[in-house]
Amino acid sequence: MISAVMPNYARKDLAFVRGEGVYLVDGQGRRYLDFCAGIAVTALGHCHPHLVETLQAQAGKLWHCSNLYQIPEQDRLAERLVDATFADSVFFCNSGAEAVECGLKLVRKYQDDHGAPERYRIVTCAGGFHGRTLATIAAGAQAKHTAGFTPLPEGFDQVAFGNLNELRAAITPETAAILVEPVQGEGGVRPATLDYLRELRRIADEFGVLLYFDEVQTGVGRTGKLFAYEWAGIEPDLLSVAKGLGGGFPVGACLAKEHVAASLTPGSHGSTFGGNPLAMAVGNAVLDVLLADGFLDAVDAKARILWRRLEKVVVSHPRIFKGLRGAGMLLALECEVENTRIIDRLEESGLLAVAAGDNVVRLVPPLIIEEQHIDEAVSVIDRVSAELEHVSSI
Q: How far apart are CA 323 and CA 321, in angstroms?
């Protein structure tokens, strides 16, 4: 008999009842160091005092009124994102997939508005992940996501991630944009080189197409800057973000330069819940913390410590790990054994991690971790690795 909740998730037999900073607590009172962070969502940890206070205060005033009316907190969050980024304008929604859908529509609308309706195709990269809607699984084109959902929306041309020659060859008179994750998250935490990102900007300009970054996972401080594109010293034309933007509250956004955003005219796109007062209050509270002096510098510094300590673990356990990759606090241990086997053992030892493509263990801790939490996590990984090596040698 089917469960009351649809069976589309392969859930673990584990339920949490509360969160405390960088820890989750289950029904038996056991604490887990959370290096999953709701899949890179709880960027400020669990029950951050400023977020809790802000949410409670707003909940007692106004939750929802719809975008038929002015929403002052929405204006404020948009202005702060504009001031801190390349963008001139922002559209708010509820999730990463919605943020990407907005961008996909905006790309087509922009080209149509500029007299090129034939330019509707988007070049994407193999291994990319952009969401679970029909259009976004078509953009990602991973068989495990598209199986059973054909025919898919048409208009995506996929090339190898990091291969500029393939990308150039894929651009035709019908190409509207290039869509890329600066670090492929679900695809295995595969970072693009900064030179690759810079070349994407040059190619987009050369061919007159838009450069579109999916920073749903890499954005909001995850790489040590507010957005990952900043490391390359270039700017996209539009960008989608979600996950950490609400610190656990559903918030997504599509950011764009003026020449692109101007195509989103009244009636061309919308969201009933997107940008409501409750979500916007929390989003502003997240930025209060992230944009405070020294916060992102501290994230970068702690990420470098985490990287160095994980490197030592990888070197110490070559039968378990073959490498380390990623950026900032979006890291992956490349596994010689099945990644889920390692993740299960880590969980048993009180450390939460998450799988990703290409057989990696993904580590995406809250940005507020301290060195003591890094020591704790690395100690667990080291011990579990030694145990697995011992079992394998018997």
A: 6
Whether 37 contacts 43, CB under 8 Å: yes
Token pair 């957005």 in the structure block, residue = 227
Question: Which residues lie across from 20 on neighbouring strands?
Answer: 23
Burial letters for 182-207: b for 16+ Cβ neighbours within 10 Å, e otherwise?
bbbbbbbbbbbebebbebbbebbeee
Q: How many residues does the chain have?
A: 394
| The pair of three-digit structure tokens given for residue 70, joined into one six-digit string | 């002015």
CA angle, 69 as apex, 68 and 74 as ends, to 5°? 110
User: For all residues of the chain together, what is the average pLDDT?
Assistant: 97
* Residues 319/152, Cβ–Cβ less than 8 Å: no
Closest CA to 127 of 63, 164, 179: 179
Q: How many CA atoms lie within 13 A of 112 on its CB side?
A: 12
SS3 90: strand
- 393 pLDDT more than 80: no
φ, ψ for residue 216 (rounded to 5)? -55, -40
- Residue 232: which H helix or E strand, with range? none
Which amino acid is residue 45, in one-letter code?
G
**256 secondary structure, DSSP code:** E
Tell me the domains of the chain and their CATH numbers.
50-290 (3.40.640.10), 294-393 (3.90.1150.10)
* Segment 340-392, tens digit of pLDDT: 999 999 999 999 999 999 999 999 999 999 999 999 999 999 999 999 998 76
pLDDT in the model for residue 132? 97
Rounded mean pLDDT, 267-295: 98
pLDDT single digits (tens) 196-217? 999 999 999 999 999 999 999 9
**Nearest by Cα to 119 from 179, 171, 158, 173:** 173
pLDDT at 391: 74
Q: How far apart are CA 212 and CA 181, in angstroms?
A: 9
CB 196 within 8 A of CB 184: no
